[in-house]
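Lecture notes, unit on binding sites. The following record was shown on slide 14. It pairs a sequence with adenosine-5'-diphosphate.
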Amino acid sequence: MKKYVYFFGRGRAEGKAEMKALLGGKGANLAEMTNISLPVPAGFTISTEVCTHYYANKRSYPRSLAGEVKAALKKVELGMKAKFGDPKNPLLVSVRSGARASMPGMMDTILNLGLNDVVAAGLVKRTGNPRFVYDSYRRFVQMYGDVVLGLKPVHKDEIDPFELIIEAKKKQRGVHLDTDLSAEDMVDLVGLFKKAIKEKTGHDFPEDPMAQLWGALSAVFGSWMNDRAIAYRRMYDIPEWWGTAVNVQSMVFGNMGETSGTGVAFTRDAATGANEFYGEYLMNAQGEDVVAGIRTPLPISELAVKNPVIYKQLNKIRLTLEKHYRDMMDIEFTIQDGTLYMLQCRVGKRTAFAAIKIAVDMVGEKLISDKEALQRIEPDQLNQLLRPVFDLKEKEIAVKSGRLLAKGLNAGPGAATGRVVFNAPDAEAWKKKGELVVLTRIETSPEDIKGMDAAEGILTARGGMTSHAALVARQMGKVCVAGCSELEIDYATHTMRVRGKVVREGDWISLDGTTGEVLEGKVATKPSEVLQVLIDKTLDAKDAPVYQQYARIMGWADRYRRLKIRTNADQPDQSLNAVAFGAEGIGLCRTEHMFFGEGKIGPMREMILADTVDPRKAALARLLPLQRKDFEGIFEAMDGRPVTIRTIDPPLHEFVPHEEPAQRQLAKQMGISYEKVHQRVEGLHEFNPMLGFRGCRLGIIFPEITEMQSRAIFEAAANIQARGIKVEPEIMIPLVGNVKELADQAGIVRRVAAEVMKEKGTKFKYLVGTMIEVPRGALTADEIATVAEFFSFGTNDLTQTTLGVSRDDAARFLIPYVEKEIYPKDPFEVLDQVGVGQLMKMAIDKGRGVNPDLKVGICGEHGGEPSSVEFCHRINQNYVSCSPFRVPIARLAAARAALADAPAKGSKKRAGKKAPRRKR
Ligand code: ADP
Ligand code: MG
Ligand code: MG
């Protein structure tokens, strides 16, 4: 018979850390902590297979489950020397969800389960602490009412109905904090809560503990399919079939009085990565009090002063956990009457800054290898390092002129400026309209997740460094200022008051997530430290600690990657930036951008509108020296690195003016009539320009264009080479679907190369190749490779033509497509490996079959997208090419791809890590 329930307690557990797929992250780590002798209250985990069964069988359980739960509960009772439902000596439990990947706050936990009027009275007798008992009881009824019976706010501006009752009670008693309420008040609350539940849901609150337990279990399994869980899974690529596990654990109480408390902590600073114990706690509190922001928690350093014995124990556990897991951990603990208990640990979420610092530091501490360090940094996290920070001078001016509104906690570093909105749906809606927004909330909750994603920055009035807002912001890489208690936010009027000022919806504010400052209006930003060192050269590397870490990671990445990384650039300054970011060549130089440059668009238009060869050649002759100069600039900037230049590609109508005044001016310039110009421009109109007269088709019909471009390239090559700089041009013919197209164009290129060499009395190396961007090109790659010396996948066009989807018209249906999971991601952003990828693989196999030395790269947008880079590695491309700012990302992605397919030598951990990443 299949085992569904796994016990942990009294120093031994049936599960372990490696069993996350079955036990969920929380359950597996509770088991692991039990096994390494940390103080964990006993409990059991119901496996994710039950969740799968539940949904495969009309929300019902495996037949053997009830028996297993009963048996496990017995074991817990033995361990805790208390009995579930027994008024004389009751065992209370928590019911906690826990999926394989942590989904912060996605599913709700129920605490103090097992209480009813009789049990509560019994517990009062036993503990002599009625306040504690009825505080626990009212919390339980509230959580059960919310999570299991569904009594929660329906409208976005509404307050939790239970909170309303509590507020009314506090007002009636004239107190401010929950802790100021008396035991009698709590008894009242329990009654009022139950009444509200009955009134609003029609259900009675269940008094039978066993019924409570099964109600809670169903609610947790049911929550796997709630909207916010689904939204979260979509955002983080968590497959639905994983399911969630449920943990039932005996309660320990942080709300027993001033010798009890609860807290959360990180073994290192999750925002900066500093190797310091970082966390918050509250005495006489339970569960989520610390993160919910109702009371402001104390920093963990305070515990060292107030309760050194517990602090010492906790700090020892911190070190034990880091050694054992070899990572920064996020922990939950509770102190019950002076005894410390561990309630959770997991690998801690961190900012990109922290991820990099911790990875680099842990290599230094010999906790992990450089390879592991690379595997711990998601390539996209590097984006955060490249993001702007506030210009300090600008900020100083803003502060001096009284625009500092308030100061909160620096929960998510970086700089953000946007317009204030007060709820998540508004954030989403404004963002859709193209606005930059700062989501401003009293506190955030999991329902806000999409709005948080839409916001530039997140500002909350309550909550600490480990509040929901702070955690989620860090994971998303959002700027966040949390716990800004001076803000008086009024959801109803969509305003906030602070220091005598009123900020309304739509007003601009700026957040400094690195310092926690909130400023009125916009504040100018400035490039990140990495950019200041690499690009602007305004900062010395030795004064830039963030840059230094970046550089070490990049150094390790370069050590292990096999893919070369190139960039898409067509200007010398862009090329230099890309080289600073580590580009090893240009993979796509689009010559058409050059035609819009100084003095070029005129002759270009004349060339296009010429009706015979001679005037066309005359115009091209005027373009030649200008274009040659462009190439000289690029070759010089790239200093010997390979440069792939694509011959003209876009439809010609993109270069000509469409408005009458501009056409009249052009007519004057060309000495022909306006009507003629107008007529010829009209003649260029196409119904489907992306499939029209463009790409190599232009060069085939107007060979003199290819001739001029080739000449410009080769004369530039000869000139630069004469100055002692190595040059390696690679001429790339676009949109080839038939080998004869390429043969035609390659013939011109090679002829001109020979001519230029002869004229200049020199020799230079060059290659002629093609883009593979229409399916016929891929299908006949074996023919094409007889002429081409290299292939470069133009995956933008190849995606359009393979899917039969016009990128420019796709937004209307592609976004819903992704929502419906027809495509897992926008295929123009993340390579469609199954379809487009198959064509690529086929093209490489066929091409290398006839030309084993064929060089293969990619120059579409996908060349800088991590999962696509990994794919390019797997199909044995030689290089990827992407925009300059994505070069660091591609370097890291390429290294991670190489490490992922290297046989993992004796490292079990690594094999385990690899699996989830493949899911992306
Ligand atoms: P989440 O996944 O949202 O963190 P948890 O299951 O960890 O939810 O529980 C929410 C809160 O309740 C946490 O603060 C946790 O420490 C606390 N908690 C859970 N189980 C117990 C327990 N058995 N005793 C005391 N506190 C508990
Ligand atoms: Mg929770
Ligand atoms: Mg937790």
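Take-home: The pocket of magnesium ion (ligand 3) is lined by residues 332, 344 (CB under 6 Å).
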